[in-house]
Amino acid sequence: MTQTTAAVPAGSRVDQHDLRRTNLGLVLRWLRDHGPRSRATLAAEVGMTRSTVSSLVGELSDRGLVRIGNEQRGTVGRPGLAIELDGRTVCGIGAEVNVNHVSTLALDLSGRVLAEHKLALDAHDVPVEDVLDRLAGLVRHTIADLQSQAITPVGLTVGIAGLVDRVNEVLTHGPNLDWRDVPVGQLLRTTIGNDIPIVIDNEGNLAAIAEATPGDADRQDILVIFGEIGVGGGIVAGGRLLRGRQGYAGEFGHITVQPGGRACGCGRRGCWETVCGLGALLELAADPDDPVRNPASALDDRLTELNRRADRGDERTVEALTAVGQWVGVGAAMLTNVLNPAAIVLSGYFAAVGHHMQQEIETQLAAGVLAPDAGGTRVEFSRLGFGAAVRGGALSALETVFNDPTSVGPRSAEGAVLS
């Protein structure tokens, strides 16, 4: 590489503080995306001198963001000490409001889970303020867990099912929650009673952020389809989340696949989620009084029971999964014709029972995509399941550190972060 500093356009008027901050962020992101590196390797890969990298690493270490690990071997010459992400003194918190639960998750820079809480509820039967109160209680509990470990949260990102006005922090329309024009950000700030920065986002977008693994070339052009009561998701192209003009991209569940079909919570008919959302599957698979259709029961347990029935060959369950799998494939083919992603990652409830649907999904994808071999698009299942959105929230909150490592103060002699 020929560059000698961070990627700052030639002739730009950037003062030394801004240049330093840019270079710190570049090094921190490089370690996140590519893993531990020696100073020499890091310098060669980012195009800086070794002395510059050593100085940057020293400052990042002082701020508790990197640490010196084991010797890096397998290179020519004397092995160097590997620099790796640390960040044990700071973290991001993700939170989620969904139809069946509220949850929180805290992650450090390396992706280590520091705290996690989840509460099952039926949001339809609980007033909006009470749902947000319960979420706020989980957030306060999470913050207390972190304080006991001397860890400082740098931000909270809340994912919510529906159309989100991120600028005004308002859920404008949540069809499956049956919420409209809810000032989520304002209500949470009042209830949490903490000065932690709060961002409100769509849960499907956050799930996509969690699935787009940094440094993994196969996960930089993906379509994430997140299924629960509704169906949503996110589009990642070149490693970047595509939000659309006003931030409403990813509402896949409301593409029309069956004109004049079943009524949807959005007020239209024939939406994709009416034939492949969780409600559609449960109606096909079980009678109304069956325990798997009881919204008061934990969703994980209900899906485990469906898998058990399918594994033993229960005819009704297998037929239901087959029918829904066909519809998933139909919609996936439509989206693939438009976007041609490297992979379609099925998340949420699809990840839990999708192995029973996979053959039908792939059959419909192959039949519905114009390009040969489905345009090279693979079908994958998330390993994060229902935790994708809340994990994406925590990762999103941590972006403030990667964008500006100087936002984290240096550590005191005792190891605490100085504000």
Automatic annotation (TrEMBL):
Concerning InterPro entries, the annotation shows: ATPase_NBD (IPR043129), HTH_MarR-typ (IPR000835), ROK (IPR000600), WH-like_DNA-bd_sf (IPR036388), WH_DNA-bd_sf (IPR036390)
Against SUPFAM superfamilies, the record matches this protein to: Actin-like ATPase domain, Winged helix' DNA-binding domain
Q: What is this protein called?
A: ROK family transcriptional regulator
Q: Which domain of life is it from?
A: Bacteria
UniProt feature coiled coil, ranges: none
Record-linked Gene3D superfamilies: 3.30.420.40, Winged helix-like DNA-binding domain superfamily/Winged helix DNA-binding domain
This chain's source organism reads Nocardioides bizhenqiangii
Name the protein family.
Answer: Belongs to the ROK (NagC/XylR) family.
Residues in domain HTH marR-type?
Answer: 26-68
